[in-house]
Design a protein that fits this description.
This protein is of the alpha/beta class. 30% of the residues lie in helices and 15% in strands. The longest helix has 12 residues. The protein is globular.
Length: 164
């Protein structure tokens, strides 16, 4: 198993992209909760990230609303099911942890959904920022609630996203 990484700038700070055997397996923000040790990211090499960088640039330019990249999501079967549901939340919309639990036929598991959401290894592209509390509050984002608020505002096109 070969790992490589690169760091790209974004409106939300530097993003570390990680590939495992040439396939995107991580996108981490600085000071992110559950961020793996940098020693696990492998050597610095931009080669496997051309398309991911192109799509991220298009997303931040408001030219792309849905990512189409091969990904290697490493986690438990339940985590992978949650991450698959995250990818189904449309751009600019949100879902609650309870709604995701219901979509997984696990209506009593919003906390488990929240834990899996927090361990999402490919932030932004797998849009865990689109999940909110049952009362509409912004809760639990590994990249920080400020970033979550800014990402949601960005996708909704509101001016408080810090980009203008």
């Amino acid at each position: 198993m070969t790992r490589q990484h690169t760091v790209v700038d974004s409106p939300y700070g530097p993003l570390t992209l990680v590939a495992t055997d040439g396939v995107l397996s991580g996108l981490y923000m600085t000071e992110q909760r559950h961020r793996p040790d940098e020693e696990t990211f492998g050597g610095h090499d931009e080669t496997p990230f051309g398309e991911a960088i192109r799509q991220l640039d298009a997303y931040f330019a408001r030219e792309l609303k849905e990512f189409d990249l091969p990904m290697r999501l490493e986690g438990t079967p339940f985590q992978r099911r949650v991450w698959d549901q995250l990818r189904r939340i449309p751009y600019g919309e949100t879902r609650t942890y309870g709604e995701l639990a219901g979509a997984l036929d696990s209506p009593g598991a919003p906390r488990a959904v929240g834990l899996a959401n927090g361990k999402n290894p490919i932030g932004i592209i797998v849009p865990c920022h689109r999940v909110i509390g049952s009362n509409g509050s912004l809760v639990g984002y590994g990249g920080g609630l400020d970033r979550k608020q800014r990402l949601l505002a960005f996708e909704r096109g509101t001016p408080d996203d810090g980009l203008f």
